[in-house]
Amino acid sequence: MKVYKVGDRVQIQPLASDREKYGHPRASIMAPMLRYSNKQATIVSVVYSETLGQYMYRIDLDNSFWFWTSKAFRPQKLLKRKQIC
Q: CA torsion, points 23, 21, 6, 2, in degrees to nearest 10?
């Protein structure tokens, strides 16, 4: 499980193929999240979920509405960290 930091640039996986694969048994990818497939985003906050036992991420694309797991992201090697104030 990859741990991302605030400001990291990521690309969202093509989620439509297998929603549970990119989520968590208790926090899967929801249908409205599918529209962000293959788009680039910036991590804006990181929270550790005791219930799920993993880090959850909020991104700028959805105005920090959804929580995302690291499995939903494909890191971009060519993208640089963006300064978030």
A: 130
Question: How many residues does this entry show for the chain?
Answer: 85
Q: Give the DSSP H or E segment for 41.
A: strand 40-49
Q: How, if at all, do strands 73-75 and 9-12 pair? A: antiparallel
DSSP-derived pairing of the beta strands 40-49 and 54-59: antiparallel
**Residues 6 or more apart in contact with residue 41 via CB below 8 angstroms:** 9, 10, 11, 12, 59, 60, 61, 73
What is the per-residue pLDDT across 19-76, written as a single tens digit (0 to 9) for each?
A: 556 566 666 778 888 899 999 999 999 999 898 888 999 999 999 999 998 888 886 6
